[in-house]
Description:
The complex is a heterodimer.
Chain A: H1 2-23, H2 27-49, H3 58-77, H4 83-111, H5 118-146, H6 159-179, H7 184-202, H8 210-232, H9 235-258, H10 263-268, H11 271-278, H12 292-300, E1 304-309, H13 311-315, H14 319-331, E2 335-340, H15 350-357, E3 365-367, H16 368-371, E4 380-384, H17 393-396, E5 415-420, E6 440-444, H18 447-460
Parallel strand pairs in A: 1-2, 1-4, 2-3, 4-5, 5-6
Chain B: H1 3-25, H2 32-43, H3 47-55, H4 60-90, H5 94-99
Amino acid sequence: MQTYFIELSYLLASIFFILGLKGMSHPESAKRGMHLAEFGMLMAIIGTLMHHEIVTYTWILAGLAVGSVVGLMMGLWVPMTAMPQRTALSHAFGAFAAALVGISEFYRVYSTGGHLEKITMGALGFEVMLGALTTTGSLLAFAKLQGLVRGTPMTYKGQNVFNMVLLAVTIGIFIYLVVFPGSMPLFFAMVGLAFIFGLLLVMPIGSADMPVVMSLLNSYAGLASAATGFVLSNKVLIIAGTLDGFSGFILSILMCRAMNRSMTNVLFGAFGSAATAATGSEQQGSMREVGLEDIATQLAYANKVVFVPGYGLATAQAQHAVRELADVLEKRGVTVKYGIHPVAGRMPGHMNVLLAEANVPYSSLYELEQINPEFPSTDVSVVIGANDVVNPDARDNPSSPIAGMPILEVDRSKSVVVLKRGQGKGFSGLENPLFFKPVTGMLYGDAKDTLTRLVQAVQHA
Amino acid sequence: MSSDALISALYVFALAAFLGYQVISRVPPLLHTPLMSATNAISGISLVGSIVTAGARYNTVSTILGFVAVVCSTTNVVGGFVITDRMLKMFKRKEIAKKE
């Protein structure tokens, strides 16, 4: 009876999870979908509390309480600009939980002289390896995004070879444990190596490639949960973990496609170092700096203006200032749109969330394919803290390291204004010919400050 | 795990993968960030495994590991859902966004 109740609660939870994700196909149905998923989660937790093996509730309730408080604080107070960091941290938490459950299961069986079947050991090995490497990998991604360590790729000679050897050793131990299970020191050696491998995997990856890494870690965290489901023969874990794993996998493929690079290239290519060697087209003339008043006049008398945000928008916290500028322009009858590149920012969809936070209606946010045909009829394109995603070299120069990457073709519009912190190059270290084109005007300074001053200037124009 | 259990688990895995592919490919790029935090919250379901480990009193090590795992997954579940709700509330249609 009790078992039926638990299994029923898991079945309902699985259905509600799927319905919840199905709702994500549209912003209006998404809210309702999430409430269903939340309800499903509650059902599954209540069901689990009836599990016959549970003899004490002290640690469960304490854990639930601590986790809820921490989760609530993170959920309510994390600013939207810090969403990539928060997500990286939660990948680490999820994966760590999966790894711990696996370790505890292994320890429980072998400290009492028990024995794990080969199949279970295989699933358990996957669980702790994926869990461990995702934990440290995500923590390093978090540290890079938070600015605790440098965002540039960290590389050394023979790095890929070293990583491969380490991975081979880890997998070797794993296979040995599946065939001859039971060695606790080897098991913990495998766990330790997986923790180290996670760090090594993310080390050589630069900040600009973070959207791919985030999606990939998302996928690993999900698959670790699914493996937990195999170990515990728990179907809801398998379903939820697989959904998470595939969602992350699909996102990482989409991100790679948006950069025209393969997964191997992102993971082992160490973009930044390769780029500096390959820049052939240095010095294409001079950048033209323009005055704030000129731009304000141009904007005020334009018919159509497209804003193109990049990670710089997030660092400058300028999303509200953009919206204010858009408001005064729209009041003057200017059509305002936003062009969003899939890899703009540090995680998939980063820019959309920032602009939504600033009350920009989602109907004004346009995807790459939708906005590109509109640039020729655009009077002014305003690039805010974006660089590689508007680099015409990707389209025109086949020898460029980013050749073939789909870009937002702002250079086709009648006039371009680039808001930039300074004259330096972007994260990838690439020269951007857009900045040297005759249609382009540069406006240096803090994006938020510049935009606020533009709002005043437009109002007086 | 018996081979029967493995086979039925593989069925569930394969079907969930297929379904996941169908459902997730229909999510627009607009909602990719909320999607990631939502799937994150959902995969916090590993909480059910953690709960049993923390409450079954197998041995001290398991209880401690289980307790930490419960904290981690609960943080994900609660934080993930709260933040997804918060994000989704921000996505507004034109008329509604204008009024505020």
